[in-house]
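Example for tutorial group B:
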């Protein structure tokens, strides 16, 4: 478990982007053996957004980044680091952060990707905090972007109904106006990695001309993932609160990873946070993995649910397994 407390760190701008194309549960019914009723009752998801042909994770991240920079009142040229969370990059190389940098019309920043699956944004906050601690004049652009619909097996109804595309972004500095990152905790258990996979790496060596196999797409043991997600999101949330002398009574809003409404409700129950203080928007977007938390933050602000003065608890869980929690004071 890693931690970085007592370091001044402000999250100064937020932005989010979802593609125009929407796939409703009723659209899925037409080509997957499923129903709106099943998806709604088991997950809470009603629709998800899908990148257009030719539009990639870097494009979504760039749109979100522009909005985050505008929200922070900053120009792209002020950015010193671009750090990008994704498990569905445009390429294995070059990294998506470099593509975002180029699309923003800048060069020279330190730019790299990292993969913590759905925990990417919270992991990114932890890394951004470490960067500004080491370099107090750093201006970090954190993007979290996914093109998951490109890695769904549309013949596997147990996974393809769950995910969507989108991106979120934030600008992080040591000072200035913005939400104070009070604390962040990240953890993992690689022994459980096989329960949620997306192949296409060098583990399965493809030869030129080979068709891709099922391993190329999202594969998941949903029931096991569900149990670990609830247990670990709740536990790490309690840990980050406890070590700051806080309880959930001190939290105005819980913004959890938007994977499944039943997971979110179970985490809220374990933490004793009533439903009206838990933000949910997965009915609109599905599970957008790393993008889900920053997408939810931007959405909660836009809807007036998240307001200045509020302390927000972020909780995430994803493939790896990875999980994390953060306290942001707006
Ligand atoms: C995937 C998930 C929704 C499945 O819900 P569940 O209640 O566990 O359902 P089960 O897997 O037990 O399946 C129940 C039945 O529904 C069927 N089913 C699965 N997907 C279906 C779908 N899209 N439409 C209709 N039926 C479906 C199954 O085949 C099974 O049928 P059977 O009993 O005849 O075998 C749930 O396990 C889950 O959300 N897990 C967490 C996944 C997640 O969020 N992962 C990302 C974390 S970052």
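The residue assignment follows.
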């Amino acid at each position: 478990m890693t931690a970085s407390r007592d370091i001044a760190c402000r999250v100064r701008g937020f932005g989010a982007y979802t593609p125009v194309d929407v796939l409703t549960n009723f659209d899925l019914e037409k080509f997957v053996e499923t129903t709106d009723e099943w998806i709604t009752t088991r997950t809470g998801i009603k629709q998800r957004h899908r990148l257009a042909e030719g539009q990639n994770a870097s494009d979504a991240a760039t749109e979100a980044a522009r909005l985050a920079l505008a929200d922070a009142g900053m120009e792209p040229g002020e950015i010193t680091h671009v750090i990008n969370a994704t498990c569905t990059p445009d390429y294995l190389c070059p990294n998506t952060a470099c593509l975002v940098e180029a699309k923003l019309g800048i060069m020279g920043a330190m730019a790299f990707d990292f993969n913590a699956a759905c925990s990417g944004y919270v992991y990114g906050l932890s890394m951004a905090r470490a960067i500004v601690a080491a370099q107090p004049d750093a201006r970090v652009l954190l993007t979290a972007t996914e093109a998951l619909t490109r890695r769904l097996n549309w013949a596997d109804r147990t996974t393809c109904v769950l995910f969507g595309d989108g991106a979120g972004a934030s600008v992080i500095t040591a000072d200035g106006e913005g939400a104070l990152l009070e604390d962040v905790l990240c953890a993992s258990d690689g022994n459980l990695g096989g329960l949620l996979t997306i192949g296409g790496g060098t583990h399965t060596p493809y030869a030129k001309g080979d068709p891709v196999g099922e391993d190329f797409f999202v594969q998941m043991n949903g029931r096991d993932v569900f149990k670990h997600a609830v247990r670990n999101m709740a536990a790490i949330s309690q840990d980050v609160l406890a070590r700051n002398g806080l309880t959930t009574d001190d939290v105005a809003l819980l913004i959890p990873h938007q994977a499944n409404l039943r997971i979110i409700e179970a985490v809220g129950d374990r933490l004793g946070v009533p439903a009206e203080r838990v933000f949910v928007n997965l009915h609109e977007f599905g599970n957008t993995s790393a993008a889900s938390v920053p997408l939810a933050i931007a959405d909660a602000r836009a809807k007036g649910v998240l307001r200045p003065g509020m302390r927000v608890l972020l909780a995430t869980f994803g493939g790896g397994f990875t999980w994390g929690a953060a306290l942001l004071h707006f």
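The chain has a mean pLDDT of 96. Compare this with the pattern of hydrophobic and polar residues in the output above.
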